[in-house]
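Okay, is this right?
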Amino acid sequence: MHSNCSHIATKEIPKKKYRLADFFNTWWDEYAKNPKKYIRPEQYKAVNAIRVCRTAVLGVDVYACPDCGEISEMYYSCKNRFCPTCSWKDTILWAEKVKLRMLNIPHRHIVCTLPHSLTGLIKRNQYALLSVLMRTSADTFKDWMFNKYGIHIGIISVLHTFGEEKNFHAHVHMIVSWGGIRPKYNNLKKIKNEFVNYHFLQKKFRCKFEDELIAMYDNGQLDNDFINRQDFMKFIKEVNQNDWILHLEPPMETPEKVIRYIGRYSKRACISEHKITNIEGEFISFMHKDNKDRDENNMPLEKILELNYRDFFPRLLQHVPLPYFKLVRYYGIYSNRGNIPQEYFYKKESIEVEEIVIDNPKECKECGIAKIYIYTIFDIRGIKERNNPFNINLHKHLITERNHKQFAA
C-alpha cells in the first residue's frame, strides 16, 4: 500500500451495487410531503448534498487523451460530513493526519456508552448532553491516570449516535494514550500493564455525567417534563439500575496500528453503501451485526434489516450532525501539545492520499497514458433546471454533448 513511505497509491475498490442517492431520488420528495418526523434544516441539506454528490449538478472536470481524444469526466463531491461517499475519503485523510499528533506509545480503544433510558432527554438536549458525554468520558480517564500514575494523557474522542440498526445509541469511541507526560520531569512514561478497575471507572463515569445532568436541571438549563426535583431524582435512580457500559480493548503498540484499526472505524459514516444489500420498490435492506446473537466464537452474527422508506429516512436522518457540533474532539495533552518535546510524538513522513476510485478518469485505458485536463464546467443549468436540480440525466447529456463539441473545435 505504501510507496517509499510517502504516498498511498490510488486503489481500486469493488463497485457498489446500490447507491443511497438513488433511494433518496426515488422516494424523498414523496416522503417530504408528509414526513413521519419533523425534518430539520441540516437534514434537508444533508439529503440534498447526497442526491447531487458526484453528479453534474456540482460541476465537472473534463479530461481528454492526447492520442485518441477519448474524453472522461470527474464529478465534484458534496463534501457533506453525512455523505457516505465523501466521508470515506475524509476519514482516510483524517486517520493519516491524526497519527502524527499522537505520542509514540501504546494506545487503547475505549468506548463509553449511555443507558438507553436517557435517550429521550438526550434527544431534547442534544447540544448540551452530547457535549457532556464527550467531556465526562474523557475526564474519567484523565483524572484516573493522573491520580494513579501521575501523568497527563492524550485522548481523541469520536461521537457516535447510531447503533448497528441505525437506532439512537449515544456512545463515544476514544483513543487513549496508554501512558503520558509526567509534569514534574516533563518526560514520557508508558504504562506497563493493561489492568484497570473496571467497576471503579464505570461508577466514576456515571457520577461525572450525572453530576452535570443534575446541575443542568437545578440551573433550569435542561429541557424536560419532570413535575419537580423529586420526580427528576426518582428518574435518575431508575437510570442507575441499568449498566453504564465501558468497553476497553487491549493496548496497541503504535499509533499506526491504532489508527488503522480504530481510527477509520470510529470516524466512519453512519451507513456504508457497501452494506446496502437490496433496494426494491419502497424498501431498502442493509446488513448489520447483531451483538445479542453470537456464534460459537462469540462473534456477532450478521443479519439483514429491511425497512420501508417512511421508516428508514427518519431512522437514518436522526444521526445527521447538528450544525457546528464537533464530532471529533481532543482532550488532555492532545488538545494542546504546548511544551511537550517533539521527539515524544510519532514520527513518520507525511502521507499524501489520493482519491479512491473505481475507474480513474485521468488515465486512458486504450492508450495507457495520462489524460490532460481540458476545462471545468461549474454549472450548466438554466433557471428552470436550478429549480429542479435532480434532473441528472439531462445534465449528463448536456455535458457530454458540450464536451465533444468543444474538444472537436
About this structure: The first helix runs from residue 20 to 33. The chain has two domains: 16-75+359-408, 103-270+319-345.
